[in-house]
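ARCHIVE CARD
SHELF: 3
SLOT: left
DATA:
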Amino acid sequence: MIKTFTRSGVRFQYPTNWTMDLDEADGAWTATFQSPETAFLLVSLRPDAETTVQVAEEALAALKVEYAELEAETAIDNLAGQPAVGHDIDFFTLDTAVVCWTRCIDTLGGPLLVMCQVSEFDRARQEPVLRAVCASLKIDED
């Protein structure tokens, strides 16, 4: 089964067996989605940020605080039919390799950050799910 997340003109589908938590303040919000395994998705609307590049760099800086030896490459991609900037990131935690990617796009409400993360433990099963969630992302243009 599939659930649909909708907020501030942002819409996407995610598995029903994933848990969701929503935090909001001053027009900004962050929704986190956790799979029953290690896959993790964060979607955050940042009306306070000036650019998508700023949000992508802030997300990378926050990850570097937690994982000092991470490796990251700048990524330019398409998400929800528009240009997206972010990073492809690899790091280790608890002796487990983790793959993470961030993408940021503009919305009418401000920059939107999408961050996906999964460990090598269940990457073969969960990365395609994360990719499908990202592919289902739609942004209202009005």
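SLOT: right
DATA:
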Amino acid sequence: MDDFIATPSDLRGARHVDKMAPVSPDSEGAGDSQTEPTQPGDLAQIRAELTQLSRRMLTREDTGSIVQELRAALREQLAGLRTDLTNLEQRVDEIETVVQDCDDQHRATEVVVTRQGNMLITLRRQV
């Protein structure tokens, strides 16, 4: 097992190996946004990169077509929502009608039951 697990004494003798690339004199100021390129090749490369970036940027026509597509999709979604809302309104109206009919029937039944109760009381008195 000791062959597979390194002990602290084994690690003391090991040298630390740096895996980073050595720093070149050209790259020392590369991260600075204040420095300007001094070689014409650098300017040409920057121009080429800017040209590529400008080609990838959205134009008014691109954004216009995207906006039109979004509007069309929203209209379609709204039309679906309106249809769903109309269907729900119809169902609620039907349910309200059924509930009203049940309520009317319940009240009528209460009146009949009350009358029958009064009639039973009267019959008991007579008996």
